């Protein structure tokens, strides 16, 4: 997927098609072959953690938007919309539909792959620290290819550090609950806030 984002750069529909194969279908195929890597338990619902997840998700939404409105003026976001249009064909006309997909489907794919398939299984097969490191770094590096020419170097490094930290947080949330719903809710609302910024940058809001 890093190659698809950084070098091939197909349209968003084609990119999403390959992502579903890489992040969903292939892990399930691997789990079917290797019984030591179960995946069904990742979707077990536990009510106890749901309220906490929703409250944390709402807090993340407010926090990200607050950061944008308070320190956003110190960074140049002018390249973002142009890069999105040039690289994957995202523009003002289709951004609403893509924002819905990113918030609900794309966030679930990433949580299932990086936190469920990678982290939750790797911590059983290797060490806990190794699982945290691999999952968080893979999550951040994957997004590097996607955002390489979106921002200035300062903002890019800040976002990279934030992605690594987010990876550690998401892993911790799932480790406590034993499923991927908690981190999915938080990830979903983080995407809601980022998409809200996108609506502003595209001039929709």
Automatic annotation (TrEMBL):
KW Hydrolase (keyword) present: yes
Transmembrane segments: 12-33, 54-75, 95-118, 130-145, 151-170, 182-204
GO molecular function, one term: endopeptidase activity
Location of the CAAX prenyl protease 2/Lysostaphin resistance protein A-like domain: 94-192
Highest taxon of the lineage: Bacteria
Keywords: Hydrolase, Membrane, Metalloprotease, Protease, Transmembrane, Transmembrane helix
Gene Ontology biological-process entries: CAAX-box protein maturation
Protein name listed in UniProt: CPBP family intramembrane metalloprotease
Taxonomic lineage from the root: Bacteria, Bacillati, Bacillota, Clostridia, Eubacteriales
């Amino acid at each position: 997927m890093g190659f698809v984002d950084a070098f091939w750069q197909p349209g968003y529909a084609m990119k999403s098609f390959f992502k579903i194969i890489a992040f969903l279908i292939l892990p399930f195929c691997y789990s079917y072959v290797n019984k030591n890597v179960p995946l069904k338990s990742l979707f077990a619902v536990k009510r106890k953690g749901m309220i906490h997840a929703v409250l944390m998700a709402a807090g993340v939404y407010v926090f990200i938007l607050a950061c944008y409105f308070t320190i956003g003026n110190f960074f140049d976001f002018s390249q973002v919309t142009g890069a999105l249009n040039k690289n994957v064909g995202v523009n003002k006309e289709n951004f609403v539909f893509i924002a819905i997909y990113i918030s609900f489907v794309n966030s679930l794919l990433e949580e299932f792959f990086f936190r469920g398939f990678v982290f939750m299984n790797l911590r059983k097969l290797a060490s806990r620290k190794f699982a945290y490191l691999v999952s968080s770094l893979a999550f951040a590096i994957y997004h590097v290819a996607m955002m390489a020419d979106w921002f200035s170097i300062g903002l890019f490094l800040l976002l990279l550090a934030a992605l690594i930290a987010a990876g550690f947080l998401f892993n911790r949330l799932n480790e406590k609950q034993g499923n991927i719903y908690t981190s999915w809710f938080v990830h979903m609302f983080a995407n809601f806030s980022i998409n809200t910024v996108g609506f502003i940058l595209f001039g929709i809001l």
